[in-house]
Each structure stands twice: as C-alpha cells, then as structure tokens.
Amino acid sequence: MGKVSELYRQRVLDGTITPDPAQQSVLPQLDRVLADMDAAPASVPARPRSAWRALLGVGNPAAPAAAMVKGLYLWGGVGRGKSMLMDLMADAATDHASRRVHFHEFMQEIQTGLDQARKRGDQDAVRPVAIEVARKTRLLCFDEMQITDIADAMIVGRLFQVLFEQGVVIVTTSNRMPEDLYKHGLNRQLFLPFIDLIRDRMQVVCLDSEVDHRQGRKAGGQVWFTPADPDPGGAMDAAWAELVGREQAQPLQLEVKGRQVELPAFANRVGRAGFWDLCGRPLGPADYLALANAVDALLIDGIPRLSMSNYNEAKRFVTLIDALYEARVRLIASAADEPEHLYNEGEGSFEFERTASRLREMQDATWGNA
C-alpha cells in the first residue's frame, strides 16, 4: 500500500497541488490509517464490546487487531483541501477493498437497503445492510459528512457500530466538529451516542488552514449572472442556445423510486429549469442525484436570496448543488446576488458557506463536462 504523503509530494512536484502547511500536517494521520490496516488482519471482524465494557468505555481485550484500526474524522472550513486529501487517501489504498463516496450518496444507498430489508421482515434492518457493505469494502472514504435528515440521524449510529464491528475502517471529512453534527436537530438526544462512537473509533483532526483553495482560480466564460449584469435573462438564453444547438428541447421525465421527477427543458444532455421547479417541490437527494447523472450541464434561472422565509427551499438547493458538484455538472445560473451573499444570516447560513464556496469553484473554466 502506498502513502498519502508520497502521493501528495508527487502532486506538488508536478504542479497539481499547491503545498499547504495545514494539509501537510495531517498527512501523517492519513498514512497512519493505511499502515495500521496493513498490520491488522482483515478476515476476522471485530467482536462487539460486552454491555459492561461499553458502559465503562473500555474495549474488548480479546478483539482481533482489525477492531483496533482507528479511522479518521477530518474537519475544517470550506475549501481547505479536505476533499483533495480524501481523493489521495482513496488512491493510496491500493492493497485493500476501498470506496470513496459522498456521504449523501452513501446514505441514500443505505436507506434503499433498509427498505428492502424491512420488506423481507428483518427485525434488525440495519445489521444485514451494514454487513453487506462490509463484505465488499474494508476502507470507506466519505466526503462531506453532514447530517440534517432525521431519517439518517436515527440510524447512522447503529450503522457505524455494525460497520466497526465488522472491521470496516472509516475516514471522513466534514465542515463541522463531531459535537456540532445534527445541531438543533429533532430528537438530537438520541443522536448523541453517535458522537461518542466517532470519538472512540476515529481520530478527530482539524484541518486548520487559512487558505481557501477554491478561491482565486482562473475565471472562464461567465456562468453566474446577477441583476448587476446588463441582461442576465438574455445571457442565460444565449448560453442555452449555444449548448443545445439545433436540437429541439423537450421535458425530461426521470423515474426515481416509483415517482416522476421532471426537468422542464432538456436537449443534448443539457437541462434548464427555474429555481422553484427544482427546489420549490418536495425533492430529495435521490431525485437530485438522478438529475445530476442525466445532464452534463444545467441552467438554473432565478435563484432568490435565501433565508428562514424559504428555509426548506434553501436546504433543497444545498442538496442539489452537492449532487451537481459530485457529478461535475457544469452549472450556469442567474441569481439575486453573488454566491457569498445569497444566504448571510439565520439558521442554515453556516452550512451555506460550503455551498457558496462550491458555487464559486464551479465557475472555473475547467469545471465540469460541458
């Protein structure tokens, strides 16, 4: 198995990565995870702790070495290079079954598996789903762990517990320290044991960099239009005409979990919709993932200012941008203001900092497929 630090050094030498002292300071922890996995057996899953040992907070002395491989929880501000380090981690893990996946996407897969387990009549629906994940994967690399959905919050603790018992090692990034996950969420007291589990089974490290590596990139052709521009509507129409060409646009119907999700205009793998078409309806991560997989470029008209008055729509917009970002979909949009000024106060404004940073990155000329 390679080292993350070696890959980092190679990328610095070839100019792919700009060296950052904060990033370099966490490379030994990433290397440590891979070295521990090399040294620990993977064939025998860890045994769960007995009830009294769990109560006392101590481990099982008879547990196999695989149970002793601590994962890593890497948190810090937006644009600090966490996702890039996760990519390097996945690239370096050549000797073990590993998977690098966005946390939202993974939890959607888990919820689908739970539905199937419940239909089979399984009393503990989480356990067989987690065991199936462990059967295929020893190292899970999650990007952007954040928990806002109560359905995820209520099962994630049990899910991770079984994954750890099965010897799965988890490395994840997040914009929040563990204690701030699912903050102010409904029935949060039921979620708190998961925070203890993270602290017990994962090394928590803050990536404390002063540099936002998503800013200051070379600007390409304008793809974000605000009222300050001379004719934002006309610019959007011109972009649409250029991307679609002579192909006739039609609505696109996507079937997601037995329901229809419509994109109002679609041609040449380019879609166009208004903000309210996509975020004013009760759509979720699975819908946005399906949409992101169907297009190479997406035009969104009329993104408003976001606040508590349209909180649900703002949450959906954040989820939509996450899906587009992960799929590297080219985004062209007209909005009430620049990304950093769309959502400046009230509940949800902290989480939107990451979205604003992603929206800024997605304006780069090299972004996406279109």
Question: What's the helix and strand layout?
Answer:
Elements: H1 4-13, H2 21-39, H3 51-56, E1 71-75, H4 82-92, E2 98-102, H5 103-119, H6 126-136, E3 139-143, H7 150-165, E4 169-174, H8 192-201, E5 202-206, E6 224-225, H9 232-244, E7 250-256, E8 259-267, E9 270-274, H10 275-279, H11 285-294, E10 297-303, H12 311-326, E11 330-335, H13 349-361
Parallel strand pairs: 1-4, 1-5, 2-3, 3-4, 6-11, 9-10, 10-11
Antiparallel strand pairs: 7-8, 8-9
Helix pairs in contact: 2-4, 5-6, 6-7, 7-8, 11-12, 12-13
Organism: Paracoccus onchidii
Keywords: ATP-binding, Cell cycle, Cell division, Nucleotide-binding
Pfam families: AFG1_ATPase
Number of strands: 11
Rg computed from alpha carbons, rounded to a whole number of angstroms: 22 Å
What class, by secondary structure content?
alpha/beta
Major beta sheet, specifics?
6 strands, mixed
- Helix and strand sequence: HHHEHEHHEHEHEEHEEEHHEHEH
Q: Could you state the CATH homologous superfamily of the largest domain?
A: P-loop containing nucleotide triphosphate hydrolases
At the fold tier of CATH, the topology name of the largest domain is Rossmann fold
Average residue-wise pLDDT: 85
User: So how many helices?
Assistant: 13
Strand content: 15-25%
Q: What would CATH call the class of the largest domain?
A: Alpha Beta
Helix content: 40-55%
Question: What is the strand arrangement across the widest sheet?
Answer: 6-11-10-9-8-7
Q: Which consecutive residue ranges, at least 5 long each, have pLDDT under 50? A: 44-67
- Indicate how many domains the architecture comprises: 2
Span between N and C termini?
Answer: 35 Å
GO biological process, one term: cell division
Protein name: Cell division protein ZapE
Pfam families: AFG1_ATPase (PF03969)
Keywords: ATP-binding, Cell cycle, Cell division, Nucleotide-binding
